[in-house]
Amino acid sequence: MKVVDSSAWLEVLIEAPRARRFQQLIEEAEGVLVPTIVVYEVFKFLQREESLDTAERAAALLKTYHIVPLDDRLAMEAADFSLRHGLPMADAIVYATAVAHNATVVTGDEHFAELEGVEFVGAGEQDE
Predict the structure, then answer these.
(1) Could you give the number of structural domains in the chain?
(2) Of 8, 96, 101, 112, which is most buried by a Cβ count within 10 Å?
(3) Which neighbouring-strand residues pair with 67?
(4) CATH number, residue 41
(5) Is the dihedral of CA 11, 13, 14, 19 positive or negative?
(6) What is the pLDDT of residue 123?
(7) Please, where are the H alpha helices in 50-108?
(8) Is 54 within a domain?
């Protein structure tokens, strides 16, 4: 099971340098979980940087996977991870979602690089 972070989805959606690597990790996953905060981040970024139509198509794609809503239990676990690891709110929610579902985080975000249960794809792992 994988929780795909916003950074990875955006690489795929805008066909950025690591897009194929992230796409491969998504396709290999036994299941993909999408925290609601990821829908928010992807939709906001694409609406601002591309268009509303592009953002809506991306949201439709994300909804083909299992959306995990933020509830009170997950919010409190995310707060603990934020304090313990110095994670920003959205990253803490993504990480807490993965831990709660015994999943691996797939990301290109440096905030996650040293955490357990993370498959980090660094800038040096660009598609060729």
Answers:
(1) 1
(2) 8
(3) 34
(4) 3.40.50.1010
(5) positive
(6) 79
(7) 52-62, 72-85, 89-100
(8) yes
